[in-house]
Amino acid sequence: MAKRRRVRWDRVAMVFGPLLLLIIIICVSCGGSNKSKKSPSEISAEQPSSMDIVEQTVPLQSQPEMTDTTVPSGTSVTAAAADPAVNYKQELIVVIDAGHGGNDSGALNDPNNPTRMEKDDVLRLAQATKKAFEKYPNIRVIMTRETDVFVELKDRCSIANSAGADFFISLHRNSALTGDGVEIWINNDAGGDNTMDKLLATYIMELLKEVGISQDRGIKSGFRNSSSNEQSNNYYVNRNTDMPSCLVEMGFMSSETDNQNFDTHLEEYADAIATAVVELVTDRNLFEVETIQ
Questions:
Q1: What distance in Å separates the CA atoms of residue 14 and residue 31, rounded to the nearest whole number?
Q2: How far is residue 91's CA from residue 137's CA, in Å, rounded to a whole number?
Q3: Quick check: 141 and 94 in contact, CB under 8 A?
Q4: What number of other Cβ atoms are within 10 A of residue 250's Cβ?
Q5: Mean pLDDT in runs of 10 for the chain (293 residues)?
Q6: Nearest CA to 244 among 289, 201, 292, 181?
Q7: CA-closest candidate to residue 276, choices 214, 188, 193, 184
Q8: Cα–chain-centroid distance for residue 231?
């Protein structure tokens, strides 16, 4: 009877053990690699398309108060909007006041043989200025008159005060028989701080000069021919409006140069007035102005 051979398992393990361990390591590595890799279709499904990626803008009114200067990723805000001290309004209200109207012609180019009237010129400029503001959707313009009608001074002020306007700009042309150039009148300081009035007038004057005027006659306080700083010696609309205001004398009706400038640069003057307001509130961080693209 043949002798039965004994199996030496220790030798089997010695030979096949390392090979089995190598096979296990390879399987584990391949499995981990397959889990980390995804098909192109899976990757595409997880990634947003270019149509889904839209820049987010925080509305002015819903902007939360920030305690630091960190701007959330994917959010577009200006430095001013991130400032919790700035209290933005939804819209800026500007009142444009075309002087005179109806049976009040205002100044004439020639009292003996008039061919143009102040009331008509300033209405044209007011309408052009309103149009110039239309490129800013969050600025609302209110006109004290839009046709050839007479409006009492107290009613002009009431329109602005009732609307809670931010600025009041009254448009006129000078009535002196001789002279030329632009001058802007503001309320004197007797009734309180007129810093914003001065800034409004200064910004307007500077931009009108860039367009081209015969001369800069200055920013003046009070009322023409008045030597007193009493509150009563102010133009009515400057004295009785609750917001920063100015009265712009857009050249002399008796000056051929001023008349020519007025007719030639009407729309540029209007744009200068609108731009002056925008630059003032932007520079002073009072309001964030939007622009129609």
A1: 27
A2: 8
A3: yes
A4: 25
A5: 50 62 66 46 40 32 33 32 46 98 97 96 98 96 98 98 98 94 90 89 98 97 70 86 97 98 98 98 94 84
A6: 201
A7: 184
A8: 32
Beta carbons within 8 Å of 253's beta carbon, 6+ residues apart: 107, 108, 109, 116, 118, 121, 173, 174, 175, 259
**∠ CA 156-277-257, rounded to 5°:** 80
CA 61 to chain CA centroid, Å, is 15
* Per-residue pLDDT at 147: 98
Secondary structure of the chain as H, E, C letters: CCCCCCCCHHHHHHHHHHHHHHHHHHHHHHHHHHHHCCCHHHHHHHCCCCCCCCCEECCCCCCCCCCCCCCCCCEECCCCCCCCCCCCCCCEEEEEEECCECCECCCECCCCCCCCEHHHHHHHHHHHHHHHHCCCCCEEEEECCCCCCCCCHHHHHHHHHHHCCCEEEEEEEECCCCCCCEEEEECCHHHCCCHHHHHHHHHHHHHHHHHCCCCEEEEEECCCCCCCCCCCCCCHHHHCCCCCEEEEEEEECCCHHHHHHHHHCHHHHHHHHHHHHHHHHHHCCCCCCCCCC
**CB within 8 Å of 244: residues ≥ 6 apart:** 166, 167, 168, 194, 196, 197, 199, 200
Q: Tokens for 88?
A: 């933005």
Please tell me the predicted confidence (pLDDT) of residue 60.
Answer: 32
Residue 271 identity (one-letter amino acid): D
Is CATH 3.40.109.10 the right assignment for the domain spanning 92-283? no
- Yes or no: say if 250 and 268 are a contact pair by the CB < 8 Å rule: no
Residues near 212 by Cβ (< 8 Å), separated by ≥ 6?
Answer: 261, 265
